[in-house]
Amino acid sequence: MSFQWEVPGSTSVQRGPSWSEMVDEACRQMGYTDPELLRYRGTDLQILEFFEQKMGNFAPLTNWMVRKFHVPDDAIMSSKVHTALAALENSKTFYTTNYDDLLERSLKLAGRSVKVVARERDMGINDSVEVVKFHGDFNNPDLMVFSEGHYYKRLRFEVPLDFKLRSDLLNRVALFVGYSFRDLNIGFLFDLLNELLKSLPDSDTGKRAYIVVNNPSDFEYTLFQKRNIEIIPTYGDKRTETLVEVLEEIVS
């Protein structure tokens, strides 16, 4: 998962904290001036689980993240990626593992009606665009996936949002943006999708899931093909610009 974002074309780069920076801050709040001392003992996810045990909850870390994600509307409107995502008028459901509200705000700023779905009570038939917070968000801190224990629990895929995902995949096409096998639960999700989709062969394109991959190698092509996920390749070092081009081609 990444918390990084930028505003291409602006005079300054805007970004929220990366995952590594968030873990560094967790270490600092626990009194460890050198996070590498804890990384020598365990993984980042284990460090965050240690944080929860030592601090009682994730509130101090969540409050820090909220302050870091204070982004003005004009910065979001200047983001080419968020503009391109908001322009996907035929896309009525967006799933995100990010905690921030940048996606739903970009949709609202584009004039679209938005419904945030983080738990069962948020579900229901409506005409709004759905932004599904698959790992919780700042408004639902009890659902936020932080630690190793959280990830193991989430990998069971047995909560209402998981059933919603399975339902949404019926007669729809999924496009993954910004994910890879490095994401702990995404690799498992790709396998789950393959099991679901291979029993649903009927679609206009013959494919039910796509993923945008920058400079894909035989590694990505082989593993994604095995999971029946088609790669949409982009090339070069300008990942943001090439991603925007893909999204704009979908709109056109």
Walk me through this protein's architecture.
With 252 residues, the chain is mostly helical. The chain has helices spanning 19-29, 35-39, 44-55, 59-68, 73-78, 80-86, 102-109, 148-154, 160-169, 184-197, 218-226, 239-251; strands at residues 93-96, 114-117, 129-133, 174-176, 209-214, 230-234. Strand 4, helix 10 (184-197) and strand 5 (209-214) form a beta-alpha-beta unit. The chain is globular.
Task: Offer a concise description of the structure.
This protein has 252 residues and is mainly alpha-helical. It contains twelve helices and six strands.
Distance, first to last CA:
29 Å
Multimeric state of these chains? single chain
Order of SSEs: HHHHHHEHEEHHEHEHEH
Tertiary shape: globular
Helical segment count: 12
Q: Level of helix content?
A: 40-55%
Summary keywords:
12 helices, globular, 3-stranded parallel beta sheet, disordered N terminus, mainly alpha, 252 residues
Q: Secondary structure elements and their pairing?
A:
Elements: H1 19-29, H2 35-39, H3 44-55, H4 59-68, H5 73-78, H6 80-86, E1 93-96, H7 102-109, E2 114-117, E3 129-133, H8 148-154, H9 160-169, E4 174-176, H10 184-197, E5 209-214, H11 218-226, E6 230-234, H12 239-251
